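Known limitations

Files may contain more than one protein. Parsers should not assume a single record per file. Below, a two-record file is shown to illustrate correct handling: read the sequence, read the token line, then continue until end of file.
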Amino acid sequence: MSQEIAECDEASAFGLEYLDALYGYALVLTRNRTEAEDLVQETYVRALQARERLRNDSNIKGWFFAIMRNLWLNQLRKRKSNPALVEVDGQEGGADYLPANDRSSHEILIGKEDARQVQIAIGQLSTEFREVIMLRELEELSYQQIASILDCPIGTVMSRLGRARAKLRTLLAPTWGKPVDSGKAARS
């Protein structure tokens, strides 16, 4: 009986440590909190259903992200065949960035403003650039893991990441008052 309880506890905790990261990625993909929550939930349900097929040496975090991306792509394909709905109120912003507790109130305020500016700039990028920035910079996945999730070569990941960073520098330069290196901006 105690072994059954332990197995039940292990099954219910499977992948919970990735939920916040998945939610952040879902926000990047959907740009809508409600849709992001639904996407995370569907991802988790699918992962639990397919858990038995997972190999012992699998990268579980990458596997969750791949499931989410495939679900999102399927939803996009389905939307293209369905009539489009227009949202009147606009979409909600990205995930909130929580400041560290050891900073002064001024540093916290500046940090929140900087994070907001970065979120706005990331939101202006195309989906392919938003995804690669999110997976690399926020989730700290390796190029190989990102290539696996996006189902593309590592070189493509590196190229997209470089172009996304260049576009972000260009978008953020006026806000932060820093000049953009014209050579870098010309390549973006």
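...continuing to the second record:
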Amino acid sequence: MSENKKKFDKKGAKNMDEISKTLFAPIYPIIAENIINRFGITAGTCIDIGSGPGALSIALAKQSDFSIRALDFSKHMNEIALKNIADANLNDRIQIVQGDVHNIPIEDNYADLIVSRGSVFFWEDVATAFREIYRILKSGGKTYIGGGFGNKELRDSISAEMIRKNPDWKEFNRKNISQENVERFQNVLDEIGVSSYEIILEDEGFWIIISKTDQEAI
């Protein structure tokens, strides 16, 4: 079994849930706050792609009035997310969607906001994934897709602990949050015809911000 598949099997889902509730727990409210502050959007429809145990969806729901659809292809992740959402008393705000970013089971021009933390680095076909994301984004909609820890302090403290636990994580994270990846994703977005986007590489992380300006397909 590949490392990517292990990440999303039953044991991998349980491990991700545990880390999201312990070491990574402080990052989700900060990322949610960063999203809201950057765009000034607090209501409408939001899709969280690669939502895993639902930590970012839950953080966003607590800080906004979004109606959220949390999409993940792993049934094990979705089972855990359902429990976490119920425990947070957010069943009326967050709906689980079983699906793949390469073929998103959501209608065209649906979302005001599309977010994703961490999953983009595991997508098998980035061009197809972003075509799908653009398809379901409303005109005037925004994306906040990438990875990071929300701010410098959390990045430094969590990175130190992750490296202590697994020295190989340092190189994995360096490759993901890098200028090299900025250029890789720029090339993909240009190639598929996304006309308005920004890629930020700052203390808050590596994030791809698409601003959809029309409802035409790419």
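Parsers that stop after the first record will miss the second one. For reference, the second record is described as follows. The two ends are 34 Å apart (CA to CA).
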